[in-house]
Structures are given as structure tokens and as C-alpha cells.
Design a protein that fits this description.
Blueprint: E1 5-7, E2 10-11, H1 12-27, H2 37-50, H3 58-64, H4 81-95, H5 102-114, H6 123-128, H7 132-143, H8 147-154, H9 167-170, H10 173-197, H11 215-219, H12 222-243, H13 258-266, H14 273-285, E3 296-300, H15 307-326, E4 332-336, H16 342-353, E5 362-365, E6 374-376, E7 382-384, H17 387-395, E8 401-405, H18 406-413, H19 418-421, E9 431-435, H20 445-458, E10 462-467, E11 480-482, H21 486-490, E12 496-505, H22 507-521, E13 527-530, H23 534-547, E14 552-555, H24 561-572, E15 578-581, E16 595-599, H25 603-610, E17 621-628, H26 637-641, H27 644-654, E18 659-661, H28 665-679, H29 683-694, E19 719-724, H30 728-740, H31 746-761, E20 764-768, E21 778-779, E22 782-785, H32 790-793, E23 794-795, E24 799-800
Parallel strand pairs: 3-10, 3-11, 4-8, 4-9, 5-8, 9-10, 12-17, 13-15, 13-16, 14-15, 16-17, 19-22
Antiparallel strand pairs: 1-2, 6-7, 12-18, 19-20, 21-22, 23-24
Helix pairs in contact: 1-2, 1-12, 2-4, 2-5, 2-12, 4-5, 4-10, 5-12, 7-10, 14-15, 20-29, 22-23, 27-28, 30-31
Protein name: CRISPR-associated helicase, Cas3 family
Pfam family, one: DEAD
Keywords: Antiviral defense, ATP-binding, Helicase, Hydrolase, Metal-binding, Nuclease, Nucleotide-binding
Length: about 800
């Protein structure tokens, strides 16, 4: 007997029921204030069980069973999202007939289904794009449904729906046509309601961003969080049910004393700097009871004083505490601002977990993550997933502990893309560690404060802010709980002294006036030079090569990742005394030097640079702040890449000093952030917050601010990806890529590329092209530097030859 299919190898009823069951498992017993638990569960049933309803049309069934499937795109008649969304809307409206928020919640159901294969848009525009053309198409689809087959499919679905009347018993062509005919009027009413709620009286005003949060301000974000919980659960369950057919959730018991056990095995001597680390570690752990009073915490300690281990330890203990209180164990999400230190922190966690192996326990996630996912549920039982399935599980944060980037976190929290919003529900009931929170752009502080406050206050999420600079993101809020007294530790620091000379000099002048003599006077000392642009770093490197014959390491993102990693390892192993780098080494890279030179930068960057100097307190470290300018234009390299306001504040503070001891760093940083917050422009945060409140995710009108305008990293100008065939491995991986690109089937091609993606991108660099004219040829979607052309496009010491363009990082 024929049956309706959702996918080539799956019946429609099995898919719908599978998505519903998986969505329930994914959410579990979590409770959040924006949603009544029963209401969320019932609407989730409607969303998941109707999201592919229109796959019942003859058009879709012919398409899904076609031998040419995967080689041609579906057309408008084969589409299923809009008709399915209308069915979901009217079903939700029936269920919510006595609810005061009937239309609003029903419309959320409609939006979630309509956009489950695409990115979100402005919800008021969604109301407006339903005309005669759409209506005619929908009526054709309704007429192409075999209702006898559909009713048979619906027999197993009906019992799971929260309706008093069996939907299958009233399911007719006439009913669906009536819904299509009346839907335009429904949308008109919904649009009026949303526009009224978006009035100036309702929305957060810009002046409110300067004062601590209020209940009124937080309530205005409720629709955004309610909708995205519903939407993300549908997305995650739908993708996993199809792409990871045998996926099952596994509850994992993680001991609260994991870090204690790991630390005790290291046999570290508790003296000197280690004694201070131990004191801070114990102070933070001893403040666990403060979690009874709130769930936004702060750990502020000098660089190198063990913040990472202390934060992990507190998080594991807090996880156990929340498990006892709520009955569900929160996910730990550890986030960092920079890709360069993800592997380093992931390895620390791997060492801590030791025998607790498997990617269902620990994953790292960024855009270059290797698509490998293994699950071990016993001593011998291990499941390994295909590259595509592994990619789905990693991108959905299907693990107890996730190590990821600020970009992944904040573009999920403040997002519009289907691919990132899929994991939005993971933020509820989680423990989120924000390491180096000061790296968040100041212009986004008010936005981040509002969104993180809502997570903490309404979604039962714990937030742990970890920093060496104590930014003022949450200043004025009594809700932030200090887990350690920073002044006690900063006052005991004496590893580093800042020496300040912000007189403007060219690189030539710097080398002649100072550097030549310093290198001669300190032959046993190691030197790190941190510059602001690739071009200035290259120039200094060349001048150093003229001063000495000893090896010099050069670091920038113009050097392929494989070589960059090797150089950092060699630097750790003390194979280089002299290193020239862009600011990428400030991103928590664990390297140590006697003397650090830092071209002028905002105060928080200077503090990070100081963290690369005499980290272990074995001598007297010196960090010299200089101000370099381009010889041809006289413009400072700092002003080429940093915000003028941040630089001016820093310069005015530093002009009052010739030297600063490390114990005074906290006072300078506190002064910097106080002044920066008072001068920051609130307009961008304000506009994006209003877009969040209006559910304006993406706007065709470029003059209208939308959630999509939030970008943590904004590229300046167009960039091109360049593959550099640097060695034998690069030649082999490129040859494999060329074989993969010839594969016709989309999914097979994706699977094969995912398997080589990590190694492939070890040889890819991203370059700005606005000022470059001599680019490598484009081959199969990448600029390609073959091995025979290496010397023309790529310097083995300095990386890509940028032809003079000003490149940062």
C-alpha cells in the first residue's frame, strides 16, 4: 500500500513523530519564565507535527521519489513551508481560542514553520508578503493532496496533538481551502497587533541603557526569547532526526570535584606565584554558596593567576548544585573571543576529564572544527558518526561541555540565521563562561548587558564573567556577584613594569633611537614586538634581520595556520629569542618573554600584551609602550585599526606616567573603562535592541536596523580566501579537494569535504583585496597558489605578500 514520504528513505508520519519526540527530549524538564511549561509543550507538539504537513502534495511526492533527486532544485509547487505554516497557525489558533495572547502565539507557530528551512526576516514583512499569487499556488497544492492517504498518516499523529477534536476527522480539502482564503485577513490583523506593540511607548528608549535593568525593560524582550526557543527546538530536532537518525540523548554524570582531582595529580609546588594561584582558586570555590543569591558571577584576576582552572572548577561545582536544585544538569558553555586559544583551552578540559571521553561529553565548536563525533556509552560501546552527522551534532552543541567562540555564542543569542539559531535553546539553563569578556566591542556593551541579563533572570542561565581587566559591562548592577576580591591579588603583583614613551616615531627612528642599543645591551633577554598592522610588523622584521643573524619568528594571520601553530610551539620551547607579531598573540596565547614592546593600543590590549611578559614571576619583566607612525603618511598604525575614542582615552591616561608597576594596573584599567563607558555611543546597541523587541531579524530596507546588523567581527572591505600549496600535505589535500568538487551529489560532496575540511583550512588564509591588484588565479572557488608559484605570492617567513596593503591581525 502506498504511503506518504518526507524523505527518500522515510515515511512522513515517522518523520513528524520523530521530530516531535526528539524536540521533547532536547528540551527535557527545563523551566523558564517566558513560557508556561504545558503551553510550550503543547505548541511544540503543534509546530513539530505540522511543520512538513504540505509534503503530502502530489508535487512534493513526485519530487522526493524522482530518480533525479539531488540533481535538480524543487520548484514553487514542490515547496511545503507556507502551506504547512498555515495549517500550524490555524491549529494553534484553535488550541489557544481562550488564551489572551491567541493571535501572537499562533503567529509565532506560523513563523517557526514558514522559516524552518530559511533565515528569519522582519515579522511585519512576513505579514505583508501574502498576495493573490501565493494564494493561487496554495490552492493548487491543496488540490494536489490525496486526503485518504493523508488521513491514514494522521491517525498516528492525532493522539499527540493538544486538541479536543481529532484533526484527522475534520481534515478535508474544503477546510484547507477555507484556511487559505481567510489567511490574508488573519495576517492583516496580526500585523496591526504587532505594529501597535512596536510603538515608542513599548520599546526600550536609548536613555534607559545607561541605567541598571528594570523588570519593564526585561519584559520587552520576552517575545524574542519565547519565539526563538520554539523555533530553535524545531530546527534542531528536524535536522537531527534526518541527519542523525539513530541519535539519542545520554545523561552524563560529571563529578563536581573533577578539577580538584586533576590539580592534585599535578604535584605543583605551593609557593611563590603558585601560592597566590592556590589562594585565588580556593577563594572562588569557597564562594559557591553565593549562587543562592544570584546567577551572574565575576572572576577578575591578573593574567597568569589561574583564572581558567578556577572558572572550570567553579562551573563543575555549580553544575552539581543546580542539578540538585532543579533536577536537570546544566550544559557548560565556555566561550573565548579568539580562535587562536580554543585548542589550548579544549586540551585543558580534555586533561581534566581524563577518562570521561566522548564528544557527547566535550566538544569544541568553531567554523574550522574537525567533523568528528564519537559517543562512548560503556567501556566497549562506541558509536562513530559520519562527517555530515558529526557536523550536525557539533554545530548543535550536542554535548555536556562546549568550548566555543564569542562569535558562535553572541550570533546565536543575537541572531537571524537558521544555522546559528538552531542551538538557541541550549542557552537556557546553561552555565556560560565568558572568558576575556573585555574583548567584546564597547559599542555592544549595553546590548550584551540586556541580553545576558534576560538569560540570567528569565532563562535560569548562570553567567560567569572571567577577565583580567574588570570591564564596566555590568557596572551599577547589584546582581553581579564577585567570586574573588581582585585588588588583593593585583596589589601583590610585581612581575612587570610598564615603561611609557608615546612620542610618535617611525620604525626607522625607533630602531635607531632605541632598539639597536637595547638588543646589544640585553643579549640574554627575550624580546616580543607586538605591532598593529601586518605591514608595520613586516617592516620591523626586515629591520631586525639587518641587525642580527639569529633566527626571528614572525606571526600574523598572513602565515598559514599550520605554520603559525608550529612557530607558537617553537616559541614556547624557547627556540626563538626574538619574535615579531601582530596582536594575535594577545589572545591568550601562552608564551612568555622578558621584554615586550607594544605599539600604542587601547588599555585592555596593553594589559593583554603585559600578560605575555614574565608570566611566572621569575624575574623583572618590562613592557614598553611606543607609538609608531607610517613614514610615508605620518599616520599612526594604531589609528588605522582602533577606535579613536578608545585610543585617546588610553593616551591621556598614559601621558600622566613614565612608569607603572603591575600592582597599579587595575587602577589604570578601571579608569579606562569608566571613561570609555561614559563616552561610548549607545545608538547602535539601542537600534539593535529595538529590532530585537520588534522581531525584525532582517530588513530588505537598508535604512532600517535589524538583528542582522549585529556583527561581532566586521570585516573592512572584501576579502578572498587563498589556498597556499606550501608543502607535500598541501598538494595532497588540494588534489583530494579537486576530486571532491567533481562529485555530482550535493550530500556526498559535502560529506567528503567535511572529512578533509580541517586539514584543508590549515593552508587557507583570508586576505583583503581592496588595495591588491595582483591576486592568485581563482580555481574551484578559491584563490590558488600552487607550489610552483609559492615564491611569487608567499614569503616562507612573512606569509602572504600583501603588496603594501594595511592588514591587521
Amino acid at each position: 500500500m502506498p504511503f506518504l514520504k518526507s524523505h527518500p528513505d522515510q515515511e512522513l508520519k515517522d518523520h513528524l513523530l520523530g521530530v516531535w519526540q526528539l524536540a521533547r527530549q532536547l528540551w527535557g524538564d527545563r523551566k523558564i519564565l517566558p513560557w508556561d511549561s504545558k503551553l510550550l509543550g503543547d505548541l511544540l507538539a503543534i509546530v513539530t507535527l505540522t511543520h512538513d504537513f504540505a509534503k503530502a502534495t502530489r508535487y512534493f511526492q513526485n519530487y522526493i521519489t524522482s530518480p533525479e533527486l539531488g540533481q535538480k532544485k524543487s520548484g514553487p509547487l514542490e515547496s511545503h513551508a507556507l502551506l504547512s505554516a498555515i495549517v500550524g497557525y490555524f491549529m494553534a489558533k484553535t488550541y489557544l481560542k481562550d488564551h489572551p495572547d491567541n493571535k501572537r502565539l499562533s503567529y509565532m507557530v506560523f513563523l517557526a514553520i514558514k522559516r524552518h528551512h530559511g533565515n528569519l526576516r522582519d515579522i511585519t514583512d512576513e505579514c505583508a508578503v501574502f498576495g493573490d499569487k501565493e494564494q493561487e499556488l496554495l490552492l493548487k497544492q491543496v488540490e494536489a493532496i490525496d486526503f485518504s492517504l493523508l488521513k491514514e498518516t494522521w491517525q498516528s499523529i492525532d493522539p499527540q496533538l493538544p486538541l479536543t477534536t481529532s484533526f484527522g476527522s475534520i481534515l478535508t480539502q474544503e477546510l484547507l481551502k477555507e484556511w487559505v482564503y481567510t489567511f490574508k485577513d488573519e495576517l492583516r490583523q496580526v500585523r496591526r497587533a504587532w505594529l501597535r506593540s512596536g510603538s515608542n511607548d513599548f520599546l526600550l528608549e536609548v536613555d534607559q541603557l545607561r541605567v541598571p535593568n528594570t523588570t519593564h525593560q526585561q519584559s520587552q524582550l520576552q517575545d524574542y526569547f519565547r519565539f526563538l526557543i520554539l523555533y530553535s527546538l524545531l530546527l534542531d530536532a528536524d535536522k537531527c532526526q534526518v541527519g542523525v537518525r539513530d541519535y539519542r540523548l545520554h545523561i552524563v554524570k560529571l563529578p563536581a570535584d573533577l578539577v580538584d582531582t586533576f590539580k592534585n595529580k599535578q604535584d605543583w609546588e605551593i609557593q611563590g606565584l603558585n601560592a597566590l594561584r592556590e589562594e585565588a582558586y580556593q577563594e572562588i570555590a569557597g564562594n559557591l554558596d553565593l549562587a543562592d543569591k544570584g546567577n551572574i558571577f565575576s572572576i577578575t584576576l591578573p593574567t597568569g593567576l589561574g583564572k581558567t582552572l578556577a572558572a572550570y572548577n567553579f562551573a563543575f561545582k555549580l553544575r552539581e548544585k543546580r542539578l540538585q536544585e532543579r533536577g536537570t544538569a546544566p550544559k557548560i558553555i565556555y566561550t573565548l573571543p579568539f580562535l587562536t586559544v580554543i585548542d589550548q583551552n579544549y586540551q585543558i578540559l580534555s586533561d581534566i576529564l581524563e577518562n570521561q571521553t566522548g564528544h557527547h561529553i566535550l566538544i569544541k565548536h568553531h567554523h574550522l572544527t574537525d567533523p568528528v563525533y564519537n559517543m562512548r556509552t560503556g567501556h566497549e560501546d562506541e558509536t562513530s558518526y559520519s562527517a555530515n552527522a558529526a557536523k550536525l551534532l557539533i554545530e548543535g552543541w550536542s554535548s555536556e561541555i562546549v568550548v566555543t567562540t564569542f562569535v558562535q555564542l553572541f550570533e546565536t543569542l543575537i541572531g537571524w540565521r537558521n544555522s546559528t539559531l538552531r542551538k538557541f535553546h541550549r542557552l537556557a539553563h546553561a552555565i556560560i563562561i565568558l572568558d576575556e569578556i573585555q574583548a567584546l566591542p564597547i559599542k555592544y556593551w549595553p546590548l550584551a548587558q540586556q541580553m545576558l541579563e534576560f538569560l540570567a533572570g528569565q532563562m535560569n542561565t548562570d553567567i560567569i564573567l572571567v577577565t583580567a581587566t574588570q570591564p564596566k559591562i555590568f557596572s551599577g548592577l547589584s546582581k553581579v556577584i564577585e567570586l574573588v576580591q581582585p585588588q588583593k591579588y593585583f596589589s601583590q603583583m610585581g612581575r612587570v613594569r610598564l615603561e611609557i614613551n608615546v612620542n610618535r616615531r617611525t620604525i626607522d627612528e625607533f630602531v635607531e633611537d632605541e632598539l639597536r642599543e637595547q638588543l646589544s645591551a640585553n643579549p640574554e633577554k627575550s624580546f616580543l614586538f607586538i605591532l598593529n598592522t601586518v605591514s608595520s610588523a613586516k617592516e620591523l622584521y626586515r629591520q631586525l634581520k639587518n641587525l642580527t643573524s639569529e633566527p626571528i619568528a614572525f606571526l600574523s594571520t598572513g602565515v598559514v595556520m599550520k605554520e603559525r601553530k608550529k612557530r607558537i610551539e617553537d616559541i614556547r620551547d624557547k627556540k626563538y629569542r626574538l619574535v615579531v607579531s601582530t596582536q594575535l598573540v594577545e589572545a591568550g596565547v601562552d608564551i612568555d618573554f622578558d621584554i615586550v614592546y607594544r605599539d600604542l593600543a587601547p588599555m585592555d590590549s596593553i594589559n593583554q600584551a603585559a600578560g605575555r611578559c614574565n608570566r611566572h614571576g621569575l624575574g623583572n619583566g618590562i613592557v614598553r609602550i611606543i607609538s609608531l607612525v607610517a613614514s610615508d603618511r605620518g599616520r599612526s598604525y594604531a589609528h588605522m585599526i582602533y577606535d579613536d575614542v578608545a585610543l585617546d582615552i588610553t593616551k591621556k591616561i598614559l601621558e600622566n606616567y613614565k612608569e607603572v608597576d603591575e600592582k597599579e594596573f587595575l587602577n589604570l584599567i578601571d579608569l579606562y573603562f569608566t571613561q570609555a563607558k561614559s563616552k561610548m555611543l549607545l545608538n547602535e546597541s539601542h537600534k539593535i535592541l529595538q529590532a530585537v523587541q520588534r522581531l525584525c531579524f532582517f530588513a530588505e530596507d537598508e535604512t532600517k536596523t535589524s538583528v542582522s546588523d549585529f556583527q561581532l567581527i566586521k570585516e573592512k572591505g572584501h576579502r578572498e580566501n587563498v589556498f597556499v600549496e606550501l608543502d607535500k600535505e598541501a598538494e595532497e589535500v588540494w588534489a583530494e579537494y579537486e576530486r571532491i568538487i567533481q562529485i555530482n551529489g550535493f550530500y556526498e560532496k559535502q560529506e567528503k569535504f567535511n572529512a578533509i575540511k580541517k586539514i584543508f583550512y590549515e593552508y587557507v588564509i583570508s586576505i583583503p583585496v581592496s588595495r591588491l591588484t595582483d591576486l592568485p588565479p581563482e580555481v574551484n572557488h578559491f584563490r590558488y597558489v600552487c607550489s610552483s608559484q609559492i615564491e611569487y605570492y608567499y614569503d616562507r617567513n612573512l606569509g602572504y605578500d600583501s603588496k603594501g596593503a594595511t592588514i591587521i591581525f
